[in-house]
Amino acid sequence: MTEPKTHTLEVPGATIAYDVREAGGSGEPPLLMIGSPMDATGFTTLAGLFQDRTVVTYDPRGVSRSRRTDGLTESTPELHADDLHRLIDAIGGGPVDVFASSGGAVNALALVARHPEQVRTLVAHEPPVAKVLPDRERVMAAIRHMRETYEREGFGPAMAMFISVTAHRGEFPADPKELPVQDPAMMGMPTQDDGSRDDPLLGQNLITCTHYEPDFEALRAASTRVVVGVGAESEGEMAHRGGEGVAEGLGAKPVTFPSNHGGFMGDEFGMPGQPEAFAVTLRQVLTA
C-alpha cells in the first residue's frame, strides 16, 4: 500500500476531500471506509491493516477538509449518499466494498437503497437508527432534547448529554431529563457558550441521521450484499440496538465484531478499541 494521496471532488454545495491508498494486484475492488461525522483520520489504523487492498477514506461534507458551500445547516443521509455516489464515480464507478460505521452506516444504507450497482458488499457497523427501536418515540425525544440543549446552551452541555444518550443501555425513560448527565466541566468540555451552532454532529447531522428510516424494501431487493455489524462490548446501547433492528428489517442476523462502537480504531482519538481483531472479522465478512 502506498502513502495516501489526497484528492478533492466538487459536488453540489460542497468540496469533498478524500484519500486513496493504492494497492495493486489483489484483484479485489477498492474498500471504502466511511463514518459520519467522523472524518478520514478515524480510519487510519484500520486502513493500515488492509495493505493488500486499495483503501479510500473521506471527510463528509462540512467536516474537517470538506467544505460546505450550500449554507445549509442540516446534512441528510440522502445528501451524504449523493456525495458518496459521486465519490465512487470519481474512483472508477464501482462496484466497491464499503465498511461504514455509525452515521456513516446510515449514509451507506441510503447509498445502497439508491445505487446498489455501486456497492458489492456493505458492512454497516452499528447504525444509530432510532426508528427501528421498540422505544423509538422515547429515543427520538431524548435526541430532540439534546438538540434543543445545543441550541439553547451550546456545545458543552449538549455533548455531555450526547455521551449520556449513546452510553445508555436498554430502553429509554419516558422523560429525557431522567437520563443522568455529567457536568461538562468534569468531562473536560467547555461550559461557556461561544455562540457557534455549526458543530458537524450536534448542528448538522444529529436529527437527520438518527431519525432516518431505512428503505428496507429497496435494500432487500438490492444486488448489494448487506451485512450489519454490532459490537461485542456495546450490547444494549442505542447504536448496537439500531444495528440489531436494521438486521431484523433485512431478515438477517447481525455479525458481532470485537470491542465496542469504535472498536476498529487505534489511538486516533485516545480511545483505542481492538483494531487488529476487528480487521480479522471484517476481512472474514468481506470474503465470505
From TrEMBL:
Transmembrane segments: none
A GO term for molecular function: catalytic activity
InterPro entries hit by this protein: AB_hydrolase_1, AB_hydrolase_fold
Gene3D superfamilies (UniProt xref): alpha/beta hydrolase
SUPFAM superfamilies for this protein: alpha/beta-Hydrolases
Record Pfam families: Abhydrolase_1
Name of the featured protein: Pimeloyl-ACP methyl ester carboxylesterase
Organism (species): Nonomuraea thailandensis
Residues annotated as domain AB hydrolase-1: 50-177
